[in-house]
Specification:
19% helix, four-stranded antiparallel sheet, 109 residues, 6 strands, single chain, alpha+beta, two-stranded antiparallel ribbon, binds ligand 2BA, 2 helices
């Protein structure tokens, strides 16, 4: 068995959820926050058999979009104090960030 951990942008949550449900996968959603952007995203925990991994990947590939977002970057020198102006930099976010792990044991107790 495999555990797929997929970080998806908030905006794609509904489509990914619907597509996973339609295909009969079982999963859990956890509200999460990106370390860099500090914005809400969603982490899906999806437990599947080995032969279902590609099906889940296909759903994630189809419904997780790549978007550009601006991040404020502060210049390395911040002197004189109080005059520091952050400059926005574009970063590409998504599609999904996916980890596939081996599951040692799976039980519902
Ligand atoms: P964030 O941490 O908010 O990152 C948003 C985007 O900023 C990333 O998009 C990436 O393009 C850029 N970024 C983040 N950290 C960076 C760094 N150290 N150097 C250069 N660029 C950086 P994605 O790569 O699509 O990631 C989207 C979200 O997936 C991330 O949101 C984070 O929540 C999660 N994620 C990505 N890589 C991860 C990892 N290795 N471990 C755990 N979570 C990860």
């Amino acid at each position: 068995m495999k555990l797929i951990i997929a970080v998806v942008q908030d905006k794609d949550q509904r489509k990914v959820t619907e597509a996973l449900l339609e295909r009969g996968y079982q999963f859990t959603n956890i509200a999460s926050t990106g370390g860099l952007l500090r914005e809400g995203n969603v982490t899906f925990l999806i437990g599947v058999e080995q032969d279902q991994v590609e099906g889940v990947m296909e759903v994630l590939r189809t419904h997780s979009k790549t978007r550009e977002q601006l991040v404020n970057v502060f210049p390395p020198t911040i002197e004189p104090i109080g005059t520091c102006i952050p400059s926005p930099v574009k970063v590409q976010v998504g599609g999904a960030t996916v980890f596939v792990l081996d599951v040692e044991r799976f039980q519902k107790l």
